[in-house]
Design goal:
single chain; 67 residues; mainly alpha; 78% helix
Length: 67
């Protein structure tokens, strides 16, 4: 259950980062680097989430659904 909470919270932070990037893109009209920083945070979080998922699968904390 803890693993699900961690995964969902990271996904929500990724969505918030995407929203902040969109907001800064519209507000600044591409004149500042806030959009790039927000998207860099999103990419770092996505890579971190992928690593957490792989570690969780290898440790047996995450199991795939059977069909």
């Amino acid at each position: 259950m803890l693993m699900k909470i961690i995964i969902v919270s990271i996904l929500l932070v990724i969505l918030a980062s995407m929203g902040m990037a969109l907001f800064s893109l519209v507000k600044d009209k591409g004149q500042s680097d806030r959009t790039v920083k927000a998207l860099t945070v999103r990419i770092a979080l996505s890579i971190g989430l992928l690593i957490i998922l792989m570690i969780g699968y290898k440790l047996g904390l995450i199991a795939p659904h059977s069909l």
